[in-house]
Amino acid sequence: MVIVLTILVLGFVPISYQQVSSQENLAVANWGMLYADQGGTNFSPQTQITRRTDFPLEIKWIYPLSKAEENPDVLLVAEGVGHSPLILDGIVYFVRGDETIFALNANDGRLIWTAEISFEPSGKSIATSLLHTHGIQIFDETIYYLSKDCTAYGLDTLTGEILLNISDICEDIEGNEGYYSPSYPPTIFRKEGIMIVSPAGGANAPRGFVAAYDLETHDLLWRWYVLPPSGGVPDWASEAQGKGNVRPAENDWGSSRLFGGGGVWTRFAVDEERGRIFFGTGNPAPLFNATFRPGPNLYTSSIVSLDARTGELDWFYQTTPHDLGDFDCAWNTMLADVPIEGISRTVVIQGCKNGYLYVLDADNGEPVWDPLELPGIARFNDLNANMGDAADVLANYAAPSDLWEDGFYLQCPSLTGAIETPNAFAYNTIFVGAKSDCVLIAPGSVDDRPPPYIPFAGADEIRGAPVASNSTVFAIDASTGRIKWDYFIENSIISGGCCTVSGEVVYFGDVSGRLYALDAVDGSLLWVRMMGAVLSAPPSIGSSVNGEMLLLIPVSGGPSAVVPGAILALGLPHRPESTEVLGTNSLVLITIILAVLAVSSSVYAIWLKKRTKR
Q: Residue 41 and residue 424: Cα distance in Å, rounded?
């Protein structure tokens, strides 16, 4: 017995602090879902890299990306990676703008495999103006991706082999005359084995919808439509009566065949226990000229809850009725438990492009505190933002004609919105990145639907306005809506690059290529590092197979990227194992082993003594 225990102890003693930490954090070593988890919180509970880390992070490896493959079927193929990389069991995954999926070894950044997703828009209701994507998802060792031609794929995480293929998701949609452009991956409702998908494409005016498929049979289970079919339905959204903050209007949307929109540009949050999904919806189209779409245009620019099993509407909250400014609710819809007046409540958290932050009760969609108008955001001609039933639902344009100059009017926030980035939730705090910028808009004709390579915006021209563009990161108490602190950035904007939170550090990047780390407690700057190209997605955090936590940064990505970019891995500087200080858990482990050894030795001694007496 002593020999066996000695071997066990000798086997345990060489374990380094890093390895023990890896075992301790086994459940938090992965970032397998877009925005971290089913609640979409962009938070990692790892404790290796924290605000108390006294030394700067060093580059562990760089994986340079080649230029995205051109495609003759689209006008523009986005460069780089426009989402936070995923990491599962020591492998890093991401998808490039041309729909090539990569798998890298997290230890050294070496390529393991790639998978090229085909794009075949011919003869389909597919937009061909831009090829770009906002990510992939991993559920149960399968990578899920919704391609730009509306095919849902499932790929093996170890080999890239295609295990699932459900095609033509956007075909034969009743009353659709627009063109789809999927942007976000499917979400899985594990409890029932259901895959939830939604193609975006509000700019090209398709009929927005959400659909559910059985993962075993691939059968379509249900569809829920954001807006009526082309031509309108007089009593559209009658089901909304009593289920939301805006009353359904008679003849909402009118009778034109030239409207659309309502695409979902966000990842669904899933409540497995309640069997519900939560998401934000896109803007109506044509956007800047609403001549042929009267009414609140339910359920566009809204936050929505559906029954994941049936697709039945639970509730909705329309944040900008009759949207005329492209103020949809995009990126991540978050789900969290928050104490409100001493009682824990499950809430839905959503930042919208109108510059308001919404925290709604997950059961009924009612605000737990008044929508928060983030300060410091320029506002001009933002008609109907956060107006509820007081919105002007018959307005054709966001600005009256007397404010036009040479055919243009000024709009603030701009069409890319005030909150044009994912948010994060941790420590009962919501972390939001917001920008203040403006555009000049010249409304155009909406008498004809344009071809699939031209967005149906209802504008002849959109220009940048000659005003300052600034950004601010806010930390907001989730229980009260009180702003705890803010961090201001002058002459630069955050577009997709905020926020990730871990170890009481807030990470975010701006379009100038600067990566920031703020103290999550007080908002003070810990460090800033120039990465060399636009940062259009926040970093993710996960562990290599040897237990080393890595900050994974997609450098350059999305339509604004002009260089292919790279994936960078940052981590703690290497320290020789002999000089490492053992952590508390390591000392506890060794103490337990020594105690067991001591007891075992005593037992062995007693046994030996009795045997000797015999």
A: 5
- Alpha carbons 201 and 180: distance in angstroms, whole number: 5
CATH of 17-579, one of 2.140.10.10, 1.20.1640.10, 3.30.9.10, 3.40.50.300: 2.140.10.10
Interatomic CA distance for residues 264 and 202, integer angstroms: 8
By the 10 Å C-beta count (0-12 exposed, 13-18 middle, 19+ buried), 285 is classed as buried
pLDDT the model gives residue 577: 52
Q: How many Cβ atoms are within 10 Å of 107's Cβ, its own excluded?
A: 17
pLDDT value of residue 6: 29
- Looking at residue 547, its amino acid is G
Half-sphere exposure of 73 (CA within 13 A, CB side): 14
CA distance 313 to 297: 16
Total-model pTM: 0.89
Pick the closest to residue 438 from 477, 399, 400, 476 (CA basis): 399
pLDDT at 55: 75
One-letter amino acid at 218 equals H
| DSSP 3-state of 304 | strand
Task: Count other Cβ atoms within 10 Å, centred on residue 172.
Answer: 8
Rg over CA atoms, the chain:
26
**Amino acid in position 443:** P
The answer to whether 194 touches 246, Cβ cutoff 8 Å, is: no
Residue environment code for 399-419, b if the CB has 16+ CB neighbours within 10 A, otherwise e: beeeeeeeebbbbbbbbbbbb
**So what's the pLDDT on residue 2?**
30
Residue 562 has what pLDDT?
87
User: In this structure, what token pair is assigned to residue 8?
Assistant: 């066990």
Which residue numbers in the chain have pLDDT < 50?
1-24, 26, 578-614
Rounded-to-integer distance, Cα 543 and Cα 491, Å: 35
Could you tell me if 550 and 570 are in contact, meaning their C-beta atoms sit under 8 angstroms apart? yes
Residue 67 CB neighbours (<10 A) = 14
Closest CA to 51 of 471, 502, 504: 504
Quickly count helices (H) and strands (E) in the chain.
Answer: 3, 44
Q: At what angle do helices 17-24 and 584-613 cross, to 10 degrees?
A: 100
pLDDT at 8: 28
Q: What is the pLDDT of residue 11?
A: 32
Tokens representing residue 50 in the block: 């924290």
Q: Which residue has the tokens 């789900």?
A: 335
Q: In the structure encoding, which two tokens stand for residue 614, read together?
A: 């015999």
Q: What is the 3-state secondary structure (H, E, C) of 367-379?
A: ECCCCEECCCCCC
Distance from C-alpha of 605 to C-alpha of 610, rounded to nearest angstrom: 9
Distance CA(143)–CA(145), nearest Å, equals: 7
Q: Residue 390: which H helix or E strand, with range?
A: none
Structure tokens that stand for 303 in this block: 């936050």
Distance CA 318, CA 328 (A): 10
Q: Rounded to 5 degrees, what angle do the CA atoms 395, 399, 402 make?
A: 115
